[in-house]
Structure formats: structure tokens, C-alpha cells
Amino acid sequence: MADLESFRREVRDFLADNLPDELRVGNRPDLPEEPLRKWTAALAERGWFTPEWPVEYGGGGLDREQTAVLRGELRAVRAPVESPAGVRLLGATLLEFGTEEQKRQHLPGVARNAVRWCQGFSEPGSGSDLASLQCRADLDGDEYVINGSKIWTSGADEADWIFCLVRTDFDASKHRGISLILFEMDQPGIEVTPLELIDGTAHFCQVFFDDARARADQIVGPLHGGWTVAKRLLQHERTTDSATHGDIVGESKETIVELVKREVGMNNGVLADAVLRERLAAHEIDTRALDLTMQRAVEEVSAGHRGRDIGSVGKFRWADMMKAEHDLAMDAAGSGGLGWEGPGFEPAQLERTREWLFSRAHSIWGGTDEIQKNTIAKRVLGLPE
Ligand SMILES: Cc1cc2nc3c(=O)[nH]c(=O)nc-3n(C[C@H](O)[C@H](O)[C@H](O)COP(=O)(O)OP(=O)(O)OC[C@H]3O[C@@H](n4cnc5c(N)ncnc54)[C@H](O)[C@@H]3O)c2cc1C
User: Fold this and answer.
1) 237 in active site
2) Comparing 92 with 291, which gets the higher pLDDT?
3) Best probe residue, ligand 1, of 197, 209, 364, 372 (max atoms within 8 Å of C-beta)
4) Is the CB of 179 under 6 A from ligand 1?
5) Domains and CATH numbers, the chain
6) According to the model, what pLDDT value does residue 267 have?
7) Which atom of ligand 1 is nearest to the CA of 370?
8) Average pLDDT of span 32-61
9) What is residue 196's three-state secondary structure?
10) Considering the entire predicted model, what is its pTM?
11) Alpha carbon nearest to ligand 1 atom 45, residue
12) 368 lines ligand 1 (CB under 6 A)
């Protein structure tokens, strides 16, 4: 206990030295870039970007109690904490399925936030029915040659590496001939085309592979057994999506009340509306309830209890709440939330419209609402197919 208290003091000293006041506002889209970059670098340098990862892989080597103290302190000062795909999806999966060489090669770059990863799962003909994927990898000496295409690949235009699902056995049934393989994006044979979203941004891309190459020792988990690895990775995606409000990464998200105050202002009268206030309060209560539920789920998994996978429950509920949150912010903005471009609107108002449009995507990525409901029916409730 005394050790934990001295660790808490160590964290507080670190925060006093490295987290400027201007960043103590929770994760927000308008944080100043350079201070944010320096803060994230300091966190990574200390190993606290990935606090529970072993030190030999660039992590902080903290035990569960220390990690909880760190995350509690980060939340208490509303520190912004990023959680990129390399940490949430690949890192967690490599720790479980990777070889020692793979862990030593890839995890330190993720822990330093120095290597960016993208997720090559969906294909033009394979989204919800992911196991029907056609992107192929053929062995050629000690390398695989990759051909095919991936789509909706977030951040592919900025990624250094990709974790990619490919078909390696063409005779096996569709779930059996798949492998998860890692390779560099900057090589001949890979073309990346950004795709514009409904909000006008192009965060994600279509990726074309034409004889791209991957070393054969970069397959994660068993050859042809990538479906099991992919399912686990998706479990991490769904659980961390639904828990990004706080208790998993220590992130402190701006509350909906703060967001409405910041964007709409205290003085335009909207908060005098009792119905809106009631909706805001109900939303905050729902948010807290989801946080606590997902925190419990994560603690159960950390304690080795693998009985229930409630990642899908969390993802479904979280997506619904994120959309409701953006609906609320739009309602509070009134006619100020209706701008798309041109004069007559503040930049923040235009951004609000675009964020509202983007929020519709929450119930698509990481598996659509319908797919989560199917999973809940089968794996959580045990209903017959
Ligand atoms: C913002 C965003 C970022 C993304 N980032 C990535 C990424 O980085 N990497 C990546 O690989 N993918 C990514 N995706 C893709 C995402 O995983 C897919 O869009 C998703 O799995 C759905 O696949 P689909 O678009 O092919 O739709 P489809 O599978 O064609 O589904 C169309 C509709 O049919 C419904 N449907 C399909 N099958 C069933 C069924 N069995 N029962 C009931 N209803 C069904 C779906 O719910 C949906 O409403 C991203 C998507 C978005 C929106």
C-alpha cells in the first residue's frame, strides 16, 4: 500500500513536470498540436503510453494496481491520452499470439508511438461476412506475395505497417484458410487511394496489393489459423471502443455538458431549457453506467475470467450513445448546427455539422449494429442460430 502511495506521488510529479495546463481539458479535437505531441512523447518515453506492457517491449511494466493508479491520476487531471490501432488492436493481439521475435521487433515502436499501423480486414466484397475475404498470399521462398484489395482502411495513407488478413489456404473452408500477416506499407506493389467520407474528410482508404511482399515469419499465430487471431483482435476493438470514455486507457473525454457549453456557449439560453438539461443529465448517467460496466468486463478478463464476451454489448451500446450525444449537441446548437460551408457560420459550427455526420459511422466500424446483435444473441445469450 505504501508502495502504491509512493507510485502515486511519482505519477503526480511526472504530470506536474510534463502536462501543461492547456492540455488538462480532456480529449478534444481542438487541442494545440505541439504541446500534445510533446506530452504524448513524454508519456511514451516513460513507458506509460502502454503502462501494463512488459518493459522489454517498451511498456511501463506496471502491475494491475499501479496501472489503475496511473489511469486514475491521468483522468483526475483530464489528461488527453491517445490510443492508436497499434496499441489497442495489434499490440494487445501480439502480446497474446506473437512470437518472441515479433514482439521484440514490433512492440517497442508501438509503445514509443513511433510506428503507425493500419488494419487491413475489410474488402470490397467482405465486410460483415469477413471470412469470405479474397485477398491472397502465396508463398515464394521465405516471403509471401500479396495480391488483392482492402477497403475502408483507416489511416492507410499515413501508416508505416499494416496488419492484414489474407487467404493462405485456398482449398480449406472459408474460416480455416486465413492468416494474419504484418508488412510494411512503403514498398512497390502497394497503392493507397483515400476515400472521402460523408463529413468531407478522407480518414480512410482503399489499398491495392499487386505483388506486395511480406516476410514469411511475419504471420501472427498459426498459419491458416488467423480467424481465431482476428476474432480476438476484434474483441479488443469492440471492448476498447466502448470503454474509451475512461477506464481502459485513462482517457478523460469531454463530457456532453462541457461540449455543449464550449460549443454553444453559456449565454445563448439553451441551458435554460429544462428538457434539454434533462436529456444532458440522462446522457451523462448512461455514459457513467457504460464506463462502469466496461471497466468490470475488462477487470474480469484481466483476472483470467474468459467466460463472457460482452465486448459486443459495449460496442452496440456505445455506438448508440455516441450518435445520441451528437444528436444532443446538434439540437443544442439549433440553426447554428446546420452549416456545411460558406459564410454565416463560425468554423466550430461547421465542424459540429461534420462531426454529427461522421458520428453515424460508429455503428458501422468494428462490426455493424446488426452484427453485434447477432453476436450477443449467440455468444452472450446463448440463443440457437
Ligand atoms: C469510419 C470507418 C472506419 C473503418 N475502418 C476500418 C479499418 O481500419 N479497417 C478495416 O478493415 N475496416 C474498416 N472499416 C470497415 C467496417 O469494418 C465495415 O464497414 C463493416 O464491417 C461493415 O461492412 P460493409 O461496409 O462491407 O457492410 P456490409 O457487410 O455489406 O453490410 C451492409 C448492411 O447489411 C447488414 N448485414 C450484413 N450482414 C448481416 C447479417 N448477417 N445479419 C444482419 N444484417 C447484416 C449490415 O449490418 C449493414 O447494415 C471502417 C468502417 C468505417 C465506417
Assistant:
1) yes
2) 92
3) 364
4) no
5) 2-82 (no CATH), 117-225 (2.40.110.10), 243-380 (1.20.140.10)
6) 57
7) 47
8) 94
9) coil
10) 0.90
11) 370
12) yes
